[in-house]
What does this fold into?
Amino acid sequence: VENYIPAELIKKKRRGSNHSREELAYIVNEFTAQRLPDYQMSAWLMAVCFQGMSEKETSDFTALMRDSGQVLNFKNTHPLVIDKHSTGGVGDKTSLIVGPLAAAAGVHVAMVAGRGLGHTGGTLDKLESIPGLSVQMSLSDFQRNVVENGIAIIGQTADLCPADKFIYALRDVTGTVDSLPLICSSIMSKKLAEGLGGLVLDVKFGSGAFMKSFEQALVLAKSLQNIGKHNGLPVTALLTNMDQPLGQFVGNALEVGECLQILKGELSPSFADTRELSIDLASHMIYLGKKASSVAEGRTLATKLLQTGQAFEVFSALCKRQGASSLNNLPRAKKIFDLHSEAEGYIVGFDTEMIGVASIILGAGRTSAKDQIDPASGIECLVKIGSKVNKGDLQFRVHGNDSHRINEAMNRIRTAIRYSSAPPAPTPLVAKILF
Amino acid sequence: VENYIPAELIKKKRRGSNHSREELAYIVNEFTAQRLPDYQMSAWLMAVCFQGMSEKETSDFTALMRDSGQVLNFKNTHPLVIDKHSTGGVGDKTSLIVGPLAAAAGVHVAMVAGRGLGHTGGTLDKLESIPGLSVQMSLSDFQRNVVENGIAIIGQTADLCPADKFIYALRDVTGTVDSLPLICSSIMSKKLAEGLGGLVLDVKFGSGAFMKSFEQALVLAKSLQNIGKHNGLPVTALLTNMDQPLGQFVGNALEVGECLQILKGELSPSFADTRELSIDLASHMIYLGKKASSVAEGRTLATKLLQTGQAFEVFSALCKRQGASSLNNLPRAKKIFDLHSEAEGYIVGFDTEMIGVASIILGAGRTSAKDQIDPASGIECLVKIGSKVNKGDLQFRVHGNDSHRINEAMNRIRTAIRYSSAPPAPTPLVAKILF
It folds into this structure.
């Protein structure tokens, strides 16, 4: 290891200079080995928050975090392993559909998923609402499962990107989470460590996403894609609208229920958006995984695999392998309260983050990593942007186990709808695709 | 203590908001009590480096650091205790003159001085070059000395501003030293803790100072003065030119020797600037200490106290009280090398910082707080800006104990002079006074 003086490296970033790969290697490796103390790392991270990182720095930093732990390698088994990653939204449950759907098309799917934090949910929490199901698996079992069974979904393990784990934990308590290069490198380091041959990104924008504007999301998507490009990973990014909850349900077991209906080929206007977006994402996974010669062909295939129930069979087998006893005994909330419209007109917008916050209040999400989840609670959304409502129309159902929490959640949801006398202009769910 | 979430306070400063006094109290007090971890403090300090602090925040932060330890109080004995503080320069030895001079005029002088770091020297290192002299004293002994004997000079103690001590140590290793509000609050917290009734600041600018331009020094001076104002301490700030070494000598025992000559009333063009600046600073101390009804009267008094040797008597007694056996046995370097001019013309400028660096190479200063000082080594400057020199004229004498170091120092000094065929316009030593 080159012997750098940490304070000098911090000052270099503070004045806005770019680090060499060797300097970044020193920072990542010495910090992971606990030789670079937390107090120097956090000062450096704050300097990065203000001065940013160049494209090359971000790519180098990401690769160094990837290499801090075990890196999966499918080259000798099945090189074209695909994953999908979402930047997070309210009611975003597509992973549970697109994984099995792409796998049903013959794509090898490796998913290292996350837990919910803040107003957005996490795939792991949703899966764990299925009684018996476990997302704990060693990386070698995970790799074997992907190769042999075509799909596996796990949470982050101790040996996957430990540098990212330690750095994120420090960022969380030092006000340095919100930084584009740090966010992008954290996401992509884990994806690169999966040994993927292709990645489909669902980059969300709007009132229910972290990025409130399309422009912010575009910058994020391009940065994520660039990191992939610099490190040899093809990335397709869909920029998708998160101005309203996705689908009918928000909350873990409730969302699993919605996915099961879609996987079984059921159609309903309440979750038509979830189904459409899932088909979109899966078609890109199928194309990247070379099981279709065009995205359009992938779409046709994905639609068929939903209709025939083949995607459901893959999901069902996946759940069984990972310990689920049945898919028919999802937890249900003790209380369901209806929420009726107090206004009339066209719904023109939602404060979707507020609906996410209401779901946290019900117990469906976390504000801190230590919070416990109530898997049964959540919110059912029966109206969409463009819906015409009259006073007294049923708009939401709130599922919960605690009356006080339900009341508080309902008060939040009431404030989260905007009405107008004129219908809003329709907006596409997928705003842009970056190949 | 109000229960703040540290990461939220860090984010507040990161986005450029101002902290309340309560928030700053939480940060300072919890950090000093080791309940706020280093990694959160360093992230916050880096955010301060980028976002700054308002005048009120800086004053509050300073007062909170002052209150982290023992605060001296002369109200029941002699309320009008005065100190002088310099922001540091090459050959700046005026503390050793102005302290005794003001004390000889009847002012009570309390000096908590610092050590040299980087290209500027420190009063404590200079004093300690006097055999036997100690700057270690308990705060209560210091206070008693000031009251009973009119003057005492010590170094920072463990119980004076511990918050500043801990914060500075963290800043030193996290690239967060260079920040105006952090620099100002660090200086002023210690001055406020001395329980002063008035402070004279010597804020230096030019090639031998930390602030290279007058404008930067003016900002620093105003900020220091404002902190005093907000906390009830009258501060007079002199902005003084540091474009060339002050006086004849740079180096600890050599500078003490120069001070002894001035205190004994000797006159020489080589140290006329040291003497002039000392009289200026002392006249403001005497005026602030109400031993003269005007600064001009203070100047007359100070000049007389040098001529009569009364200031020398005060210094001599001070040194004796603090352990010095004699003032006639200062250490001397084994080797003295002459440096002659290789050019001819008028000297129009010095790279004064380079001369400071040369003195560090000789052993007269430190690059790190752990470095040992060689008290005898240093540089004798026999030319000034405006001097007309011919080839072969003696310009410097280098005092050292190691030939290799002496050669390296001489190479630096050779590059540190700028010549011109025309004489430079004269510039005043004191550029501005802020009352």
